[in-house]
Amino acid sequence: MNTDSLHISYPYRLPDSMVDTAAKAPDTANYLMMCNDTVFAPFTPPCVRKSLFVVERQSSPVPTASLRNPTPGSDWIFGVIVILLVLMSVILNRAKIKFKDLAVSPFDYRTLERVLREYNIKPFNLYPLTIIVLAGMAISLLKISGEFLHLDFQVSDLQLFLMAFASLIVIFFLKIGFVKMLGVVFGNDDAAYMYIVNILMFNSLLAIFSTPMLLPLFFSVNTGRLFLIIYLCFISIVFIIRTLRGFQLILTNPSGSHLYLFYYLCILEIAPILLAVKFINI
Question: Would you report the helix, strand and coil content of the chain in percent, each value rounded to 5?
Answer without folding.
Answer: 70, 0, 30
